[in-house]
Amino acid sequence: MTSYGSSSAASSRSRTNGLAIASLICGIIGLIFFNVILGPIAIVLGAVGIRQAPAKGGAGMAKAGIILGIVDLVLFGVMFALAASNGGSTWYIGG
């Protein structure tokens, strides 16, 4: 008979690698904000998460974080090249 709150059910469930989750989150947020900063962070966290994946799991999320980090950097490069080809950007506020 198992008692309420026994640890047998909780210990059978595996936990996902926190670095893989952080990599995925940085990659997703980097698509919108701070892609030049969050892209490399997502790549590094994803690489460390893949190395820890055999013990903790989450290899798929770590790979997705690496891919999104690369997409972040490519997106930054495209936006930078586009801004440079247009002579930079100017902000006109007011009348």
Helix amount, in percent?
over 70%
Q: What's the rounded overall pLDDT mean? A: 82
Overall 3D geometry? elongated
Low-confidence stretches: none
| Count of DSSP-assigned helices | 4
Proportion of β residues?
under 5%
Oligomer: single chain
Strand elements, count: 0
Instruction: Tell me the distance between the termini.
Output: 77 Å
H/E element sequence: HHHH
Structural class: mainly alpha
Structural Rg: 20 Å
Please outline the major beta sheet: none
Short synopsis of the structure:
With 95 residues, the chain is mostly helical. The chain has four helices and no strands.
Give a written overview of the molecule.
There is one protein chain. The protein is mainly α. Helix content is 72%, strand content 0%. It has helices at residues 7-12, 18-30, 35-56, 59-85. Helix 2 (18-30) runs antiparallel to helix 3, helix 2 (18-30) packs parallel to helix 4 and helix 3 packs antiparallel against helix 4 (59-85). The longest helix is centred in the C-terminal third of the chain and has 27 residues, at 59-85. It is elongated and about 70 Å long. It starts with 6 loop residues before the first helix and ends in a 10-residue tail after the last helix. The mean pLDDT is 82.
Draw up the topology in text.
Elements: H1 7-12, H2 18-30, H3 35-56, H4 59-85
Helix pairs in contact: 2-3, 2-4, 3-4
